[in-house]
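hey so i finally got around to running both of the ones u sent me last week. sorry it took forever, my laptop kept dying halfway thru and i had to restart like 3 times lol. anyway pasting them below in the order u listed, first the sequence line then the C-alpha cell line for each. didnt double check formatting much so if smth looks off just lmk and ill redo it

first one:
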Amino acid sequence: MKKIEKLAAPTVITAHANADFDALAAMVAASKIYENAVLIFPGSQESNLRNFFIESTTYLFNFKAFKDIDPKSVELLVVVDTRQRSRIPHVRPVLDNPDLRIHLYDHHPDSDEDLPFEKSVVKTWGSTTTIITHEIIKQNLTLNREEATLLGLGIYEDTGSFGFNTTTPEDFEAAGWLKSQGMDLEVVTDLLSHELSAQQVTYLGELLKNASTYDIHGVDVIITEISTDAFVPDFALLVHKIMDMEKIKVVFALGRMADRIHVVSRSKNPDVNVGQICASLGGGGHEAAASATVKDKTLAEVRDDLFALFYSQINPQIVVDSLMSRPPVVIEDDKSIDDAVQLMSRYGLKDVPVVAAGTMHCVGIMGHKTADKALSHHLGTVGITEYMTRTFEVVAIKTDLYRVMEIILSNRQRMLPVVEGDNLAGVITRTDLMNMLIDEPARIPDSLLPERKRERNIGAQVKNRLPEDMLDLLQTAGELGTDIGWNVYVVGGFVRDILLGRPNQDLDLVVEGDGIQFAKKLAGILGGRVKAHSKFKTAVVILQNGQRVDVATARLEYYEYPAALPTVELSSIKMDLYRRDFTVNALALRINPNRFGQLVDFFGAERDIRNRTIRVLHSLSFVEDPTRILRAIRFERRFDFQIGGQTMRLIKNALNLELFSKLSGSRVMHELQLIMNEEDPLSCLLRMQELGIMEAIHPLLKINRDRVQVLTELVKVHNWYKLLYLEPEIVPWKLYILGLTMGVKRDQIGKITKRLYFTKKEEREFLQLRDQIGDGLMKLMGWREGKSKLSKLYSILHYIPVEGVLFMMARSRKEYIRRNISQYLSRLQSLEVEINGKDLQAMGIEPGPIYTVILDKLLIAKIDGRIETREEQLNMVEALHKEFIEKSDNQL
C-alpha cells in the first residue's frame, strides 16, 4: 500500500473543541493575519454549525484535517477563543514540538492551565472575533463579503446579538466595520434563528418540566436536566429558548447523553459568572454563556459540584465577612523568633500575620513550624523578618468566597489576611474554611482540590522527548515496581529537563518501598551491578554501558544543626520531594504502567518553570544547607532563570549569618567544581561576587577587575580548546582556580587550598603548576617568532600541564605569545615521529638511555622541519647512533 505523504504546515490555526461560531470565525479572521496558515477545525456538537462548516467553510478557506498534516512540521501554533491546554486535544501532538511558538487570542478569563506563549492578545470583550477584527483593522486589511459575514456570525452569536451584558463598545465597532466590508445581515439572522424539530420540542418540554429554582445567596438560579442515550443536537439552542420563554436570568441545563454529562449555562445576572463556574468543571466560556462536558460522573455528582460552585461564587461576600476572625492576633515586625514562638504557643496559632511596627499594615506571615525549626538551629534571637513569608495573598472584605478557596485550598496558603484599605481587618485560616464547608451542604469544587492541580499526565511528552533506550529503562523500572507492589517515580532534574526540552542522562528513581531491594532486582533484569548505601537507604545501579541509575527509598531529610549532613527517615513521595532544594527540582514522574507519565507537583514547580523562577521550598533551606546558594546560582545561570525575591532575601540572610564559615571545604569545593563545569562558569562566578559569596568562601578569592579580565579570557580559550577535541582533556576547576588565585602570593596560597580542602598532592601539584606558569611566561618573553626555533617553544611548554598552558594563553596580553601558544596546542603538542623503540632495536641499537636521546632529537628535528619522512628519520637515527659510538670510542 502506497504511503500517503503528509502536508508540511509551518503555521497552524485552531480553536477549542466543540467549536461555536465565534471560534470558527476567529480562526478565519486569524488566517487573514497569518498568511498561508493551515486551519484545523476542532469539531462541533452544534448541528447548525457543523452543517454550515461542511457546506461552505471548507471550500472557502484553507481547512485541513489534523491527520493530513505532519505534526512535527508545525513551528507556530495560533490558538483562538481559548488558552487552555485541555481544550485543544485535537492538536496535542504539536504541543510537544521543540521550540514551538504559540500565539493566543482569547476573551476568556485566565486559568492555571493556560498555554505558554510567545504572543498573547487577551481582552474582556464580547467575542474573540471582535479582538482579531480590531487587529485586522489596525493592519489595514480588507475582507470579502463571505469573510465579513462569517466574522459577523461570530460576534453576533457570542454577544447574543448584542443583548448580553458582556457586550462592549468594541463589539459594536467591529460589527460596524464588518458591515462596511459587506457583511450580509440576512445570512447572519437566518443562521442564528433556529426552527426546532419535533424531537427537540420534546426535549425542550422535558427541560421545562424538570426545571427547579434555587435561592443561592439571594440570586435565583434555575437548574434543569434531561437524560438520554442519544446525543441531543443543538442542546445550547434549547437552553437559549428556555431563557427567552421563561424570562430567566440564570440557567444551568444538564444533559446526560450516553456516557457524558453536557452542561450548558447562560446568565444575564452580573453576579453570576457562568464562565468561571464551567471552567471549574473542565469547560469554558465567558460571563454570560459557557459550557462543559464531564466524563465519569453521574448527573447527581455533577449537580453536587454545581451547588458547591454556586455557594462559593454567587454573591458570597456575606460569607467571607462572617467567616473571618477579628480582631486578628498579630506580631510586629521588630520582634524576634523567640517572641513569635511564645505568641503562637500562647494562642494556639499555626501562623500569625506580621505587621509593620506601630501599624496594622500586614507585611508577612510567620509560621509556627518555621519558627520552631529556627529555634532548633539556635536562631531565636534573630528578627522574624528574616524568615517570615513575604510572598502571600490578601483579600478585601468583599472578595468572593471562591477566591478564598482558591488561595487556601488550591494555592496552599494556610492563613489568609483580610484587609480593609491598607489595614489588616481579620484573618481566615484553613481550619475556618474547612469548618464552614463541613457545615455547608455543598462539596468543595473538584477544581480546587490540591490533588487535582498537582497531577497531570505528560506521558506523550516523555515518549517524544526521551531516547528509546532511556524510555525502555523507565518502562522496565515501572513494570518492576508494579510487580512488587510499589510506586516508582523519576524525580528531580530529570523531570524538570523533560519539561524544558533539555537532554539529561542523570536518572534518579524514588521507590515507595525498599530502594536497595528494588535496585538489586532492577540490576538483575538489566544485567548491571549494585552499590548500596544502607545508612542512606539508597543504591546505584551501574549498567554494562556505564549508565548509572540512582535509586532512593522515599524519605524525608532533616538537619540537626546548620550546614549539617542529613539524617534520613522513611516517608512518602511528598516528603521526599519536600527535602529537595528548589521547587523546579521537586517534581516527580510516576512510571508504573497504569499511570505512566503522571506528573506530581506539590510545590508549584510547573508555575516556576513557566515564570523562569528559582525558588526554595521553605524559609530555612539555606540555613540547613548553605551550598544550596551555589546551586541556586548555577541553575539560575544555566537555565536563564531569575532567583525569586523571597529566595534572594534568604540568601542574603544566610550570608549575614556567616553560614559559609560552617561549611566544610570539601562541600564548597564540590559545588565550585560543578559551577566550573557549566557552559558559562564566568556568569556564575560574577553572580557569586555580586552577592558577596566569593569573599564569604575566602577573602582572598574576591574577584577584582584583573581577575574578571583573565577569567573572561579563560572561558574563551577553554571553549576554543574543547572545539579542537584534543588530548589531554581539560580539568575545568584547575583552570578557573588559577584565574581566581591570580595575584595571590605564594605564601598565601596555602590558606585558599586549605579552605577548599585540597589534598596534599593537589596542593603540591597546584603550587608547582603556578611556578611552571611563571617560569614559562618568562621564557616565552625571550622566544621570538621567525628567529627562535619551534623546538624551543615546544620545550618551554611541553612539561607544563594543559591547564597551565591555557592559563598562559589567557594571561598574556602579547598577541604573538598567544599565537605561538595556540600553534603549540593545535599542532606541536600532538606531533610524533614515525620511529619507535622496536625500530631502534631492529637497527641493532642496544636498549638503554640512548633510546630517549635519539627519539627526543628526532622529534626536535621534525618540529623544526629538518626531517619529515620515515626514511629521513631512519637516516638520522643511523647518524645519531654512529655519532654516539664515536663519542664512546673517543672517551675510551
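and the second one:
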Amino acid sequence: MTITTVTDVADPALVGHKFARLHRMRAAGFPVPDLVTVPANVFDAAWRDVDPGDGPDRWARAAAALRAAPVPDGILAEVRARFGSDAVFAVRACAVASTVDGKDGEDGADPFAGMSDSFLYVPADRVADRIAACWASAFTARAVAYRELRGLDPARTRIAVGVQLMVPGTRSFVAFTRDPRDGARRTVIAAAHGIGEGVVQEKADVDHFHVTGTTVTADLVRKERMVGPPAPGTDELALLPVPAGLADAPVLDDRTARAVAALAARAETFFGGPQDVEGTITADGTLHLVQARPMVMPAGPPVYWANHNITESYPGISGALTFSQAQEFYRRAFGDLYHRMGVPARTVDANRHHLEQLVAHLDGRIYYRLGAWHALHGQMPVFDLVRDVWQDGMGVTGEARPPVTRPRRRAWLALPGTLLRATRHPRQATNFLRWWDGVMADTGDLSGRTPHQLVAAYRELWAAMSVRWGVTLTNSIYGLLAVKALMRLLDRWADGAKGLLTGLLAGGPANRSLQSVRAAVALAELVAADPGLRAAVESGERPREVWHDISTGQHGTPLAEAAADYLRRYSDRALHDLKLEQSTPRQQPWTLLELLRPYITQGRTVEALLQAEQRAAHQAAEELAARCPGRLRRTVLRTLSRYVRFTARVREDTRFCRTQLYGLSRDILWRLGGDLHATGHLDDPLDIRDLTVAEVLGAYDGTLPCAALRDLAAARRRERLLAETRPGRPGLLRTPATGPLADTLPGAVAVTTVRAADAAGVLTGLGSAPGVVRAPARLVLDPSVPPETCRDAILVARETDPGWLFLMMAAKGLVVERGTLLSHTAITGRLLGVPTVVAVQGATSRIPEGALIELDGTAGTVRILAEVDPS
C-alpha cells in the first residue's frame, strides 16, 4: 500500500518507532497531544526525484534539493481539516528502519536520536516548509558523518515526519522510570520552567526529583533561565529569565512529582520495559506526554565504596598482610553474626560470596564495599530499625544510601525474637570475654615453637574465633536498638532533654581500653617519681638502654614488676595496632616509653580520671530526677541506660580483644617471616608485609600455589610504595560495574550529598559526652603529633581509635566527623569526662586550625567564635 498523505497508523515500518509509540499511547488513553504523521514513503517519493551526483558536496546538494521538494498538496489540506488554520504545531523528524540496515530500534538504542531536526511553534502556513526541512536534515554533515561512522549508506536514509499540536506548557520534564545511573527502581525527574528544550538541551536551570514509592527527595538549584517560544519574526527559541517568585521554589511540588512518576510508570507497564518520557505541564496543572522511548539501561548498578568508619582501624596505606588479615576477620566474624541473629543457614550460604567482598584494597587503602554490606545486613529483618544510625556511622550518604523497599512491618515482626536474644546477650558477652582471657592465658610464650606449630596455632585460633566472635557484633545491634528506644522514651518522659542521654551513658565500670590507659598512667606515675629516670624518658634518648634498666630492676623491683605486668596484659595496644606491618610493645617493648612520655609530661593521675567519670554520671542522675518525676518511668530509663552502658563497655572490651587477636596473629606471622628470611625465601623478615596471610601460611602447609615468595613480595612492595606517592581518595566513592577494577578505579567519582546550610558559624553533630568548653581548635589528621600540641585545645579529627587516647586525654574537648553514640570516640569522651560531639560532617575542612570554638557536648553543636584565638 502506497500512502502519500498523513496517517495515524502505528506501523514502525511507515512512521518509525517514535511516532508509532505516540500513536499507540494516544489510542490507549495517554495524555498525548493530537498528531498525524507524514510516513516514510512520502519521503521516498521525494528522494527518487533527487540526483545528488558525485563529489564531496553531494550530500549538501541532496539536502538543498529536499528542502526545495514539493510536499504533496493533500497533506496541508488534511492538517487544516483536522486541526484548523490557526493551530500551532511541533514538526519533528524520525529515521525509519530500511530493509537493509535497520535503525530506530524498539530496544531503546536509537542510533540516530538527535541526528534529525525538529521545529516548534510552527504555524499552519509553514508546515509544508518544515516537513521539507525535516527531510533535508537527514543529510546534514553530522547525520551523514554519523551514518558513515556506523558503516551505513547515507543514500538509504528514510524519514517520517510527525505533525503534533503544540501544548502551551509552562513547565516541562524528562522522567526516567529507573535511575539512569544504576538501573535502581526509582523514578528520576529533571524539570524546568518553560518548554522541554530547556531540559533536553540543558539550556534551562533544572531541578532533579527522585521518587521512590510515595517518597520524593529533591536536588534544587536557583533558577535564572528558562526556554520560551520564539520571538516574533524569528525561529530561534527564546532564553528567558525565570520570574523572581519562582527562582527559589521547586519546579514541581511533591504531588506533581508523584503524578509525573505515576504517568511514567504507566508507560513502563504499557510498553513492558523501563521508559524515558518527556512531557509538559500547562498552567492548569495538566500533564501532557510528548515522547516515550525505551531507556538505555546501564551495564549494571555502580559499586559504592566507603572508608569513613574503617580508617580508624586501618589508616593510610596498608600492605597485603594487613588487608588479607582484615578480610579474614570480617569474613569469619560477620558469618558468625548472621548465624547468631537467626538468619537461616540457607540464606547465609546463598549470600556467602558477599562475605568475601566486605572489604577491598583500593590503591593500597582499605575500603568497605557497601553493596556487600547492604546485602548481608539486609538478611536481618530487624536491621531496618537501625539502618539509618548504621549508615550515619559508616558515612553512607546521598545516592549511596539505597531506598528501603521492604515493608517496615517485617522488621517489627522480627523484633520480639531479637529482644529475646538480647536478654541472653549479657551472659553470652561475659562468657566470650572469659573464653578470650583463657585463650590469652593458654597461648603463653610463642618463642619456643617451630614454624609448623606456629601455623597450627594460627589456624586453631582463627577457627575458634569463627564460631564465637559474632557475639561482639550482635552487641552493636542490641546497643543501637537500645539507644533508639532510650532516645524515644526520653523524648516522651523527660521533655526531650537532648543532653540527658549523653549524661546517662556516662559512668559505670571501666572498659579494658580505659583500664590499659589507667595502667599506663600508674606506670608513668612510678617513672615520674624517679627524677633521673623521668628525665631520661622525657628526653627520648637511648630508649633500649633505658628500658633494659627498668626491666632488670635497676630502678627498683616495683617498677620492674609493674612494667612486666603491663606488657603481659597490654603489650598489643599501640597506635594503629591493627596494621600488621607496624610493631607494638610485644615485639619492641622499649616503645612503651613513647606511650608513657605524654602521661608523664601531662601529670595525669588515675584519681583525676575516676573523678571526671563520676562527676558526669552524678549530674545526669540529678537531672533525670528533676525532669522525670515518675518513679516507674525513671526505673525504666535507668534500666535501659544500664543496658546501653553495658553494650558500650562490651564494645570497647571486645575491641581490645580484637587488638589482642591481631597481636597474637602479628607475633606468629612475624616469627614465620623471620624463618622465611633465615631459610632464604625472603630478603628481609618484614617482607611478609607484602604477602597475604594465606601465602605466608601456605609456604609451610602446602597451600601455596607458587614458591617465588621473594619476587611476589618485591612486586607488591613496588605497588605499595607507588600508592604512598598518590594522594588519598575521598571517603565515599562510586565506580561503574564495567570491566576490571584496575580500569575503572582511576575514574572513580566522589559521592557527595546536598547538605542544608548550618546557622552562621555553627556546625551540628551528635552530642556524645556532656559539657560546654571553649578553646582553640587543634586539627589532627595524623595521631603521631606530640600530645602537648593538644593541651588546652579542642581536638578536631576525622575519627579516632584507641591509639589516640593519649591525645584525647590532653584535649579539653573532642570533635570528630564520624561516629555514633556507641563509637569509640563517644564512649571514651564520656569515660574521660571530656565534652564530645561526633558525626560533625566536614569538621576538619570547615573548622580552621587555631580558631576559637565553643563545643556543647549536650546540644551537639560546635560554634566557631573567631578564626584565630585572640588570646
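quick thing i noticed on the 2nd:
The radius of gyration is 35 Å.
anyway thats it, ttyl
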